[in-house]
UniProtKB/TrEMBL annotation:
The chain crosses the membrane at residues 107-127. Keywords: Membrane, Transcription, Transcription regulation, Transmembrane, Transmembrane helix. It holds the Pfam family zf-HC2. Residues 20-47 form the Putative zinc-finger domain. InterPro entries: Anti_sigma_zinc_sf, Znf_put. It comes from Streptomyces cinerochromogenes. The keyword Metal-binding does not apply. Coiled coil: none annotated. This is Anti-sigma factor family protein.
Amino acid sequence: MSGPMNPSQGSSVPSEHETVGAYALGILDDAEATAFEAHLAGCEWCAQQLDELAGMEPMLAALADLPGSGSTPAIGESLSARPSPRVVEKLVDEVAERRAQKRRRSMYMIAAAAALIIAGPLAAVAVNGGSDGGQQVAATPAQQTFRTMSDKKSATDASTHVSATVAMTPKDWGTQAVLELKNVKGPLKCSLVLVAKNGQRVTMSSWSVPNWGYGIPDAKTEQSKQPLYIGGAAAFQPDEIDHFEVVTFEGKKLVQVDA
């Protein structure tokens, strides 16, 4: 017999058929949605399941947010058009996993953006009108995000003279932060560390400081005068945070910012 077997029969289903629930919820990215639509054009089983899932998006989303899946079959029985309980349970598990993947992907994207922003102030310097012309500095994405954040905390270390401002925004998954760092000279490798009220320490981001440094007021070059803006994220809400530390890889604290 040709075609995929129904999951309720206990047989393994190719990966293409496992995305129907996520597609119905609209949580696939563009590439995944395009690939599934190409598969859907020639798959009667997926087309049938998609029809049965019409209008179930809120129900699946609610189920995916519940701990465990013990109540899935009972709720599934209340649906006027429904696949088998095992299919519903599989789809709910799939949606929950997809959501977890998207949250992890968001965290990875923040980390990747932070890595790119390491060279942000240098990359943002644009020469205007030839080699002898003036320089204009465009805002980096992290700097633009920093400007939109209203919750900012600042501090300057009395011994190192390094200044830092941490801007924060609460998210469902924790806290998004952008660090503005000034008056730091390299070469150094540093980290932004979140210290929670329960004592836990989490590295939110790390970067290298080149020889010319960042945010040096009396620097001779424009890139040295520009502060460093770098993003980070952690799974703590702002009210769970005690303070932030900028530390070198050798363990020296450059500045502490109380939350």
